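Here is one chain, start to finish.
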Amino acid sequence: MTELVAEFALVVEGRELGGDVSRGASAARVYKQLTKQRSANATSGVLFGAEGAQQRHDGKWWQSESDTWDLLARLYEQRQQRRDVAMDDNMDASTDDDATLSDFVRAQDLLERDGQLAEYVEVRRWLEDTAREFQPVETRKGYLFYTRRSIRTQDTADSNAMSDTTQLVTDIDPDASSRQRRDIAIEDHEYTTSLLRTLFEYVRRGRMSDAMALCVESDEPWRAASMKGGLFWRDPQLEDAESTDRVGGNINRNLWKHACAALAHDTGNDSYERALYAALSGRVDEVLTVCVTWNDFVWAHVNAVIEMRMDHGLRGACVYEQAPATSFAHVQSRRTCATDMAQVFDIVESLDGCVQNEARDPLRRLQRALATNAFAEYVEEFAQALSPETDVRMVRVVAHASLCVRQSGAELPEPAVSAVLEAYVDRLARDHDELVAAYVAQMPTERQTHVYAQFVQMLNVSRDHRMQLLQRAERHGLDTHAVCRAATSAGVQPDDLLDSSDPSDSSDPSDQFELSEPSEPITNTEQRQVRALEWTTSSSHLYPYALAQACTLSRHFLLRGRTNAATV
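Its structure:
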C-alpha cells in the first residue's frame, strides 16, 4: 500500500505523465495499470486458509478498483472530446431525413449526435471487457458426430441394438429434432449445450467474431449466419460513388431482430440459445435467466436500452422498403425495458440476494455515479458522510477520481472536493508527510495556507525535516511565507494558553502566579510552542515576524512565572 500511495502521488505531481495532466483520462489510465498490477500480485501464489481468503479478497478489491479507473478514463475522455467539438458546425448536420444513406452511415451519425447513446455504448463495452473469465468449449469437427454414427449402425445392427436408438432422429439437419420430435445422441446434446453457452458468453463479452468463427470451425455455419444478421446494411457506393467495396450487412435488420426474438421466446430451445438470441435482439427476459453477477445484469439491461434507442433513432426515411414484421407480435417482451442508465441501476439494485449486496459495494456505487454522469452529486454525498471510520482506500479513490474528473473539464462542487482532499491529507500526514504538499496544492488558494499550516504545526520532527517539507510546499506553488506565519501563530498560542491580561487584576494574585525555578524542565506544551518559532526562521523575510512572535511568547511565559521557558 505504501508504494501505491507514492505512485499515485507521482501522477498527481505530473511526473508519470511527462508533466501533462490536463486530461484526467490519462491519469486514470495510469491508476488503472497500477491497481491492475496490485491485483495480479495479490492473486499470484494464493495461499490456503484465512490468509488465502484475505489474498483473494484483496485481489478482488484491486481488480474492481482497476475496472473503476478504466470506466472513468473511457467516459471522461469521450465527454472531453464531445465538449471540444461542441461548437463544430458539422455536429448540427443530421442525416435523419436523408433517404439515400445506408443504415450503417445513419447509425454512425446517430452515435455522433447522441452523446448519451454513445456513452451507453461505451459502458456496454466496459461491461464486456470486465466480464468474468470463462472456459470456452473446444472446437469439434463433424456435425452431430455421434448421432450420425448411430444412424449408420441402425442398418446393420440386430433388432436388440436397434431398440436402443429408435428414439434418435433419422435425418442430420438442424431442424430434424424439432421436426421429428426426436432426440440426438447424448454426447451431441452435451456438446451442443456447451457450444450454445460458449456462443452466449462470447456475445456477452462483445466477441461476436469469435462466436461466428467457433460456429464455422465446428461445422455449424448456419449459426454464424443467424448471428451475422445484426450487421447494419451498408452500400459503399451510396457513400462514395467511386467506391469498389461490396455491399454488406442486413437490409432487413428489423425483421431479423424479430426472428431472433421469436427464437428467444420459444421455450423448447436451450436456455443459453434463448439468451443468445435475446441478447442479439435487445430483449432482457431470457438473458436475465442466465445472469449471475452484477456485471451480467447491468450488461443485459444496458444492451436492451441501446438496441431500443438505436431502433428509435433509425426510424424515418429509408432508401428501401423494409419487410413487415407483424407476424411476430406474439413475442413481445414481458418486462418493461429501462429507458436510461439511472433506471438500469435502480432495477439491478432492487434485485435480491448476492447481486443486491454487490450493488451496495462502495466501488459499485462509484461506478454507477460515473456511468450516470452523477459524480458531482456522489462527491457531495461522500464528503458529507466522511468520518474517521471511512475506508481509507475509498478516500484515496474518491480523492484521485475527483482530481481526474476536474482535470477533464467537468464542474465539481469545490467544497466537497476540498473536504475529500483534506480527509486524504489527514491520512497521509500519519505515514507520508512528504506527499501532503502535492495534494494541498490541488485545493483552492484560500484553503492551501490554512490546511498546510495546520498539518505542519502538528508535526514533531527535526528542523531539517521541517525545512524539507517547506521546500516541497514551495515546489508545488504554496505560499510558504504565509504557511510559516500561520503555523507559528497557531503553535505559540494553543487553546490552553492563559490570557495575557495583567495578573494583578485577580483578587488573589498568588493563585495565578508562581515563579518557576530556572532548572525546572519545560513542559511538552511549552516545548511545542517554542519549536513553533522554527517555521519563521526558514527565510530572512520572516525574521521581523519571528522576533515579534518570540517576544509575545516570552511575555506569555513571564506572566505565568515560567522563566525557565522564557529563557530557552
